[in-house]
Write a structure and sequence with these properties.
The protein is α/β, with parallel strands linked by helices. Helices cover 29% and strands 16% of the residues. The strands form two sheets. A seven-stranded parallel sheet has the order 4-3-5-2-1-6-7, sandwiched between helices. A two-stranded antiparallel ribbon has the order 8-9.
Length: 257
């Protein structure tokens, strides 16, 4: 692989598909542009103004539909209001019943103390909020409001896919515009982040970068532009004619043959 990664004069793009270690090794050992992502730290924020049944349904799908996928939820963020009104206990009980093993942050364990049949297991202190389980485990954290949820995601997320569950459109719009991830969803499972599901055909990769293609990438995302200019003047076209006012730019759309 190391020899292949040195051929930057011949290879235009590298799309690594594999483990976290493989992707990071490739990113760190080549001059070739790399399209991809190393982490899949996906979050679902459950707002206090949510449809409880919907929230439970989406959370279970986001975690268990295919736990090893990079777009599976790893952390659920619960609005503190859900703890106060008892909905958080219902949500976590249903997630546990579905087979999800839950690990709480110090904040979550403290906020939920006495409100659950069993105290949440503590999160791994070493990995903290950057733990990508890839199985039926998930982290639980409690936030005071949507702004704290967005700040948490932008700090600990991997810019892959994050979702909000709420009935409040203004909050949804704030979240969709304020979370700096390749995919941001409202009332939908993170598992929808996929090239086939987006109608791109076969998915060749997923990019969390901010240059060129971003998110699930199909064949079109691998293409770049080539500008073709054909003069219709018998004398040809020069920039000088335009700079001196002899000609002017029309910027009209031209039908392609």
């Amino acid at each position: 692989i190391a020899s292949l990664l040195s051929l930057d004069h011949y290879i235009d793009l590298c799309i690594p598909r594999g483990s976290y270690g493989l992707v990071n090794f490739i990113k760190s050992n080549t001059k070739i542009p790399v399209l991809g992502h190393a982490d899949g730290m996906c979050h679902v924020f459950v707002d206090v103004d949510c449809d409880l049944a919907m929230a439970i349904r989406i959370l279970i799908d986001a975690k268990l539909q295919y736990p090893a996928a990079c777009n599976a939820m790893e952390t659920v963020l619960l609005h503190a209001g859900l703890v106060s009104n008892g909905s958080a206990a219902t949500i976590l009980a249903e997630m546990k019943k579905a087979g999800i093993e839950l690990f709480g942050s110090k904040t979550a364990i403290s906020a939920l103390e006495g409100k659950l049949p069993e105290t949440l297991k503590p999160m791994d202190e070493t990995l903290g909020f950057t733990c990508e389980y890839g199985d039926n485990r998930a982290s639980v954290h409690v936030v005071q409001d949507i702004v704290e949820a967005m700040d948490h995601i932008n700090k600990y997320g991997s810019a892959h896919t994050d979702a909000i569950i709420t009935k409040d459109k203004s909050k949804a719009d704030l979240f969709l515009g304020g979370v700096a991830s390749a995919c941001v969803f409202h009332n939908a499972s993170t598992r929808f982040a996929d090239g086939y599901r987006f109608g791109l055909g076969a998915e060749v990769g997923i990019s969390t970068g901010k240059i060129h293609a971003r998110g699930p990438v199909g064949v079109k995302g691998l293409t770049t532009t080539q500008w073709t200019l054909i003069s219709s003047s018998k004398d040809g076209h020069t920039v000088t004619d335009f700079a001196e006012g002899k000609r002017s730019y029309t910027h009209k759309k031209i039908a392609l043959e």
